[in-house]
Amino acid sequence: MAQLWGGRFTKETDQLVYDFNASISFDKRLFAQDIEGSIAHVVMLEKQGILTCEEKDAIVKGLTSIRSDVEEGKLNISHEYEDIHSFVEANLIDRIGDAGKKLHTGRSRNDQVALDMKLYVRNEVVAVTEELIDLLESLLAVMENNLNTYMPGFTHLQKAQPTTLSHHMGAYFEMFKRDVLRMQDVYKRMNYCPLGSGAFAGTTYPLDRAYSASLLGFEGPTLNSMDSVADRDYVIEFLSALSIVMMHLSRFSEEVIIWNSNEYRFVEIDDAFSTGSSIMPQKKNPDIAELVRGKTGRVYGALVSILTTMKGIPLAYNKDMQEDKEVTFDAIDTVKDCLHLFNGMLKTMKFNTNIMETSAMRGFTNATDAADYLVNRGVPFRDAHGIIGQLVLYCIDKGKAIDELSIEELQAISPVFENDVYEAISLKTCVEKRLTIGAPGQKVMEEVIKMNKEFLNSLGQM
Fold first, then answer.
1. Of the candidates 46, 79, 105, which is a domain's last residue?
2. What Cα–Cα distance (Å) separates residue 93 from each residue in 58, 133, 270?
């Protein structure tokens, strides 16, 4: 059992206790961050005169060689070690001797694991943001290509008013844009370095915490050593942001599933993102969308898990906090996979634009505009509402859209109708006359698309 704390103990830990306590099976994912943090730590120690230049060079060379050997498959991260920290330190001592024993000077595993986790989460915030940006670019392409693709808009899953596919996709653009902004907020708030906080009360060594922080790309050091080792707010915030991403993906997936059904046929999902049935040869199932929808609960579970773990923990560090890693790693992997696969599905999806337009017409989505037509000719709105209700009943009975009725049929219900009604209630007119910012009219949609492009171009590196 390779461990860092045996001096106080007179007998071996029970094997079951050791296995239960060990974290190497999952915290080995923090290997690169552990090496990175350790190099920064010893560089700072040498600057402060705590290590000699020769000791610093030997330790850095040893750490670098361990990293290379692991990356090249020459060295395996073995489960004989309790955690990733003991793996790195033990191998360092094996390679460079007593100088390796000075690696941990002025440092505790508490601030070490807090640093490793922060470095890891910070990298993953960037990775998720990149996936979100890719998805936004795909959505923007659909918006640009479908300014005049008319379709029904819905409330209560009932056809309501006509809109465009561009406008509909724009709603999802806004959702995922907010997700990007949330990621930026998480990054900004978490970007302070806990290294040098020790177990929870700092250290008597003259560390330069600001220098360590700068070496690792942080804004500066954390300002309370007790909070530094006990803080997992950044994990909770990140998981919260990931949960919102998944909620948006799940809503989108639900619509794709509905639109892919035989009853709608608004979209056709590419074969590469569909599967068939083992018994029903006609089936083409939207499995990716369904799995994204299903995996949303998995990410929610990670958030609830860490919230529950943290709610009863007194200051400062407690072993319970080891439970932050597995659920966070799983949630990150899940979200990145879902974003990547959903984006691939969206890019290859075929939109059946003619079916969408016919659905808008047959769904009486222009009924509100027909009522407005009557109001503009002096009919009180409440009366106009009743007239159009009668008109819709007539259309349902005849199996026609409002646009398909003759002027005689229209005037039989209300003599106010004239021949200009057909232009007034066409899908094009219904959409194009909605020109307030945020509406589906082409002119304002072009404005919004321009702003969306500017937003994407403004996204620099975190």
1. 105
2. 11, 44, 55
